[in-house]
Design a protein that fits this description.
The structure holds 2 protein chains of 2 kinds.
Chain A (H helix, E strand, L loop, with lengths): L2 H34 L6 H17 L5 H8 L12 H22 L9 H23 L16 H11 L7 H23 L1 H11 L1 H6 L4 H27 L8 H12 L4 H21 L1 H4 L4 H15 L14
Helix pairs in contact in A: 1-7, 1-8, 1-10, 1-11, 1-12, 2-4, 2-5, 2-10, 4-10, 7-8, 7-10, 11-12, 11-14, 12-14
Chain B lengths: L12 H4 L6 H21 L2 H27 L7 H18 L5 H20 L7 H21 L12 E2 L4 E2 L2 E2 L7 H23 L2 H11 L1 H6 L4 H28 L1 E2 L1 H4 L2 H14 L4 H25 L4 H22 L3 H15 L5
Antiparallel strand pairs in B: 1-4, 2-3
Helix pairs in contact in B: 2-7, 3-7, 3-10, 3-12, 3-13, 4-5, 4-6, 4-10, 5-10, 7-10, 8-10, 12-13, 13-14, 13-15
Classes of the chains: A mainly alpha, B mainly alpha.
Chain lengths: ~325, ~350
């Protein structure tokens, strides 16, 4: 096979893997949007916050140590213990549930019945708040996240492809792990929403708030549930992205990357988030590979948005979104 | 009495559609203009100019522009930073290509160029609505910033990739470049602010503004009663981008002097201006000013108290600032979703009736 084609295949495979990671973030958006009609801009920051908390707990950092030191003039930073990864993940999940409860209690409850755009703005405010809060709590330096996921080049694939084509594909073990985790996550979420009692309640709320209330579903509980699930998804996304590129501020920007994925797939569709993620992942990697050198590179910054924009002009509700019906 | 009209004696439409129906307000407005024009230029110094006044004036123009689009026409845009960049780069290209023309015209022309770009990116708004549109405008943001970063023609092939404002003057006073007088730049920006507010106010209370508001409230219904959505939406995009472009041009040429596009006009700038109009009040001119003042003053105050007063580290103060900005946005949305402008209106209503409750 010609080299160019081999490279293109490798780029495509890597694009698929990156797409899975985008889809992970987009999934959190879709869950909240479906259940509460809130477009949750804070999803990316939730991933950052979850990852920061995870690292903090693992390393036994003292929360707010910078603040405490600044006020009392002390010098505390670590408790000196090291928490095993599994326990730390469970603790972080508990923190995300607590966070979901706080958000429902102090923000969402007061914003019931506001137009969508106000709720969207509120989540932007929430994102800012959490960004400052997370940095204040755990410090803003770049941290290494290691929960024991395999990393580095996958040698089996490298060798097999080398034997087949005379050129070894470079595929990161971490990306493969992320793909497996994403598949498990999507399957379990689908099972949960299709077959469990709470899942059905969740879909009922998504369908019609008032009708759900009238058959005795507690909206507040459902919202806490949904935000907790979104928190778990954020935690998974945070672990994946954090292991890949370190836990730092730029992690919150993956939310921006997830937006075109959502537009492409439709805001209300879980399969849409996955397919959209894959299309965007492959599309931007291939575009950068084929067209990028001609126009000066770094096209990844905007390609996804422009693709989504052009696509929406022809199909305003996205690939799998519910058909938009407008009446006066 | 102080804050009162003595009954409702309006005899013409002109009276009825006055911007300031109460004499007290009218007087206050003229006094404010007089203070801004006559007193401030004499007491201004470089610190106040660069930390507070210039950013406030320039952001006020940007907020006015965005408010036309988001507050009056209801089309949410996250591309403000990109459009400001268009204004800045258009201004730079014009300044370097036609050095003999007065910079005043360059800035107006830069606004016009931005309006054209805004029209282009406004086209999808005819098909895409709501959140989808908000995300679609991000395409403008990222694409434009990338374009100015990557195409050397825009920054005249300079080695650093930055653009630097050459020295230009108005009526013999330098307004751009390194050696400017504080009062000259202040007055130069003030003129633009005054003109922008005047134009926006008069556009929004006339037929154009009513069409925008009809589209905002429900576009299908508006279409049925005879508002052309194509013209209404695109004119909103054009007018909004014009002012945002003027703000970008001033931001680059008068305030910063040298600009690196990703840093000065990134996505953060889009959010900043959006926050201004949310906190200030969507669909309100006063709100644009109040929001701009708030978002400019708050970091300065915080920094002065935390870093200057308490001696905390700068990064700590920066994190707290993030928290406070976020918290305030939440607070305002919960307590008063219509922003400072609505609070101001309530206060005025109360004042009019005082001391009676109703």
């Amino acid at each position: 096979m010609p080299d160019q084609l081999l490279f293109a295949i490798e780029v495509t495979l890597n694009g698929l893997m990156a797409g899975v990671l985008y889809a992970l973030v987009a999934l959190g958006f879709v869950l909240i949007f479906k259940a509460s009609g809130i477009f949750n801009y804070a999803q990316g920051v939730m991933a950052l916050f979850a990852a920061l908390t995870l690292v903090g707990i693992q390393d036994g950092q003292v929360p707010f140590s910078h603040l405490i030191n600044a006020i009392f003039g002390t010098d505390v930073h670590h408790f000196g213990w090291h928490v095993p990864a599994v326990l730390a993940i469970l603790l972080t999940a508990a923190v995300m549930v607590l966070f979901a409860w706080i958000v429902e209690r102090y923000v969402l409850r007061h914003l019931v019945n506001q137009p969508g755009i106000i709720l969207f703005m509120a989540t932007i405010g929430l994102a800012y708040f959490m960004e400052g809060f997370g940095d204040l709590m755990w410090g803003a330096d770049i941290k290494n996240l290691d929960v024991g996921l395999p990393q580095g080049i996958n040698e089996t694939i490298d060798e097999t492809t080398y034997n087949w084509f005379g050129y070894g594909f470079f595929i990161d073990n971490l990306d493969i792990a992320a793909t497996i985790v994403a598949v498990i996550l999507v399957v379990s979420l689908t099972l949960f929403s299709q077959y469990s009692k709470q899942g059905r309640a969740l879909r009922a709320v998504a369908d019609d708030h008032q009708a759900a209330l009238s058959v005795g579903i507690s909206l507040r509980f459902i919202w806490v549930l949904v935000w907790s699930i979104a928190g778990f998804v954020a935690l998974v996304a945070g672990i994946m992205w954090g292991s890949k590129s370190g836990v730092q501020f730029s992690l919150s920007l993956i939310a921006l990357k997830a937006l075109p994925v959502l537009m492409l797939g439709g805001f209300t569709s879980i399969p849409g988030a996955i397919v959209g993620g894959l299309i965007i992942g492959v599309g931007e990697k291939l575009f950068e590979f084929l067209i990028g050198p001609l126009v000066g590179g770094a096209t990844e910054n905007w390609f996804a948005y422009v693709l989504a924009l052009l696509f929406l002009v022809f199909r305003p509700q996205g690939l799998f979104g519910e058909k938009i019906i407008e009446r006066v | 009495m102080l804050y009162r009209e003595a009954g409702d004696f309006k005899t013409s439409y002109r009276d009825d559609s006055q911007t300031f129906p109460i004499r007290f307000d009218r007087t206050a407005y003229y006094v404010l203009i007089a203070v801004a024009l006559v007193i401030v230029p004499f007491v201004i110094n470089d610190y106040w100019l660069n930390a507070v006044l210039l950013p406030f004036l320039i952001y006020a123009i940007a907020a006015l522009g965005l408010n036309v689009l988001v507050g009056y026409a209801g089309q949410v845009s996250l591309g403000t930073g990109g459009f400001m960049a268009v204004g800045a780069y258009a201004c730079y290209k014009l300044m370097t290509s036609f050095p003999d023309v007065n910079i005043f015209f360059h800035i107006i022309l830069a606004g016009a160029v931005t309006a054209l770009v805004g029209l282009l990116f406004g086209l999808p708004s005819l098909r895409i609505k709501g959140f989808y549109l908000a995300v679609a405008t991000l395409a403008a943001q990222f694409f434009l910033v990338w374009l100015f970063n990557r195409v050397p023609w825009f920054y005249n092939y300079s080695a650093s990739g930055q653009i630097n404002a050459p020295e230009r003057s108005v009526f013999g006073m330098k307004v751009t470049g390194p050696e400017t007088e504080a009062w000259a730049t202040y007055l130069f920006c003030l003129v633009f602010v005054f003109l922008s507010a005047w134009v926006v106010r008069n556009l929004t209370r006339g037929a154009t503004g009513r069409k925008w508001m009809a589209i905002r409230d429900m576009d299908i219904a508006a279409e049925i009663i005879g508002v052309n959505p194509l013209r209404a939406k695109l004119s909103a995009f054009a007018v909004s981008s014009f002012f945002v472009g003027v703000a970008g041009a001033l931001f680059f040429s008068v305030y910063l002097g040298a600009v690196e596009v990703g840093e000065a006009f990134g996505i953060q700038k889009s959010f900043l201006v959006l926050f201004m109009i949310i906190i200030g009040g969507l669909g309100s001119i006063f709100g644009s000013f109040a929001g701009a003042a708030f978002m400019v003053l708050m970091p300065v105050l915080l920094k002065n108290t935390l870093v200057g007063g308490l001696g905390w580290a700068t990064d700590l103060a920066a994190h707290l600032e993030f928290m406070i900005v976020g918290g305030l946005i939440l607070f305002f949305l919960i307590v008063e979703p219509h922003g400072l402008a609505a609070l101001w209106r309530t206060v005025k209503e109360k004042l009019r009736l005082w001391p009676f409750p109703h």
